[in-house]
Every structure is written in structure tokens, then in C-alpha cells.
Amino acid sequence: MKFASVIGITMIAILMTLYEWPKISKNQKKEKRAFVALTIAGWMLAVLLVYFPDMPGPTQLIQTVFKPLSKFLEQ
Fold first, then answer.
1. H-state helical runs in 1-75
2. How far is Cα 53 from Cα 56, in angstroms, rounded to an integer?
3. In terms of residue numbers, what domain contains 66?
4. Which residue in 3, 47, 64, 69 has the most C-beta neighbors within 10 A?
5. 7/62 Cα distance (integer angstroms)
6. What is the tally of structural domains in the chain?
7. Which of 45, 70, 67 is nearest to 56 (CA)?
């Protein structure tokens, strides 16, 4: 069942790319790179969430990174 979810996520990413790619002009190389990077990152996150649904979210990562800094600033 998880394999079907991954295929569905992949198909949505491909359809989204096929729809948006022609709208980006040839001269916008940075925009195309950003689109590819964000699409791949979103696809990877979606696939990871299929296999590991209890994975901590981005908010918990930010809390982990900045918690020592907040303790330092409180003193």
C-alpha cells in the first residue's frame, strides 16, 4: 500500500512539473533550478512521511537548534 502512495506522489510531482515547466521562460535559469530543488525536496519529504509518519516536523527541528540559544539569552 505504501508503494502505491509513493507512485501517486511521484505522479503528482511529474504532472505538476509538466504543467509549470513550459510557463518558465528559457532565460530564467535560476527560477528553473529553484523549481527543481523545491519539487525534489517536497517529493522527498512526502515519501519520507509515507514511510515514517511519526517523523518530527520542521518546528521540532527549529526548537532543537535554538533551545540552547534561548537558554543562553534568558540568563
1. 2-20, 29-51, 58-74
2. 9
3. 2-74
4. 47
5. 30
6. 1
7. 45
